[in-house]
Amino acid sequence: IQLTQSPSFLSASVGDRVTITCRASQGINTYLAWYHQKPGKAPSLLIYAASSLHNGVSSRFSASGSATEFTLKISNLQPEDAGSYYCQQTKSFPLTFGGGTKVEIK
Amino acid sequence: QITLKESGPALVKPTQTLTLTCTFSGFSVSTTGAAVAWLRQPPGESLQWLAIVYWNDDKRYTPSLRNRITITKDTSRDQVVLTLTNADPVDTGTYFCAHSGVSSHDFWGPGILVTVSS
Predict the structure, then answer these.
(1) CA-CA distance, B77 to A85, in Å (whole number)?
(2) Where are the strands (E) in A13-58, listed by range?
(3) Does A94 touch chain B (CB under 8 A)?
(4) Per residue in A71-80, pLDDT tens?
(5) A89 inside 8 A of chain B by CB
């Protein structure tokens, strides 16, 4: 199952609201997770099951979608939100990731 | 508190076998529902899922590497080992192990950078 993320890069200011999209090549119900990766660090889980916030993750993050279309929204963008964001499908093996979206804070 | 850490060589030569160990704490891989996965990330690229082992010793592999990788668990040592045979420069990257729930990888190790070069 292929995942296509868009945009691949975005630049936004502190306080902005940004949206990242992930499209699956076939229906995956809500078997989708979102991760944030800061440079030189391991990814950290943000969202699982398409819309459930992982423990300890800021409520500024929200996500939705099902089947083939998914979105991750970050409200009130903060400097610590910089980095890359990846979606991952967990519907079937092999588990696959999107190409990533790099978020730059202006 | 769940923690994981990868260990192994930083440099391997082409055709050699790469063996990476994930040592974890805060859970037991023998507990029903537990699983540990290995993933990797070539420099500047996205993430690639490699393999997973479950509490019942069920295993899954990415098809592109199925004939080269093996994942095993050592319950007594709280470790999961990934073996990659016939290493190639394209295998260069950061390798991560992660505790895996039903629908995501919820805890990750810091990663280990492995370079395949002569």
Answers:
(1) 33
(2) 18-24, 32-37, 44-48, 52-53
(3) yes
(4) 999 999 999 9
(5) no
